[in-house]
Design goal:
single chain; 158 residues; alpha/beta; Rossmann fold; five-stranded parallel β-sheet; 5 helices; globular; DHquinase_II_CS; amino-acid biosynthesis; DHquinase_II_sf
């Protein structure tokens, strides 16, 4: 896996950060978060992309795989986390490691937010650390970049 680029992909409603439910998501805007990530990792080239539309997120994933040079993807899928089979399939299809991130702890919120249809096909999930979830995601990607997309562990010969 060569390259020094990371795609930071954000789904619906993340364009409203800083305004939408700041008691849950914080006061930073998405631009603030993106700037902080880029400043913290100056040797990495970041491609930041946000869309309210599912199809655009899929296209960006495929584009990065086709273009090459990407270490992996940091993904905050927003509400698509809970029901987008298309996004799940796209993550499975691309040859890039994906780290799922969330600003809030989705497991401490409403029942419908506690499930993720994409987690199984991501390298890992980081949830509940606010904007720092993105930083932790980048650190995780940099640590796993030499490994395969997913690791399966067999227990008792299964």
């Amino acid at each position: 896996m060569s390259g020094n680029s990371i795609l930071v992909l954000n789904g619906p409603n993340l364009s409203r950060l800083g305004k939408r439910e700041p008691e849950i998501y914080g006061h930073q805007t998405l631009d603030d978060i993106n700037r902080g990530v880029a400043e913290s990792f100056p040797d990495i080239r970041f491609v930041f992309f946000q869309s309210e539309e599912e199809g655009q997120l899929l296209e960006k994933l495929f584009e990065c795989e086709d273009r090459g040079g990407f270490i992996g993807v940091i993904l905050n899928a927003g509400a698509y986390t809970h029901y987008s089979i298309a996004l799940r399939d796209a993550i499975s299809a691309v040859g890039l490691p994906v780290v799922e991130v969330h600003l809030s702890n989705i497991f401490a919120r409403e029942e419908f937010r506690r499930s993720s249809v994409i987690s199984e096909v991501c390298m890992g999930v980081i949830s509940g650390f606010g904007a720092n979830s993105y930083h932790l995601g980048v650190r995780s990607l940099l640590g796993i970049a030499p490994r395969k997309k997913r690791i399966t562990v067999a227990v008792n010969g299964d």
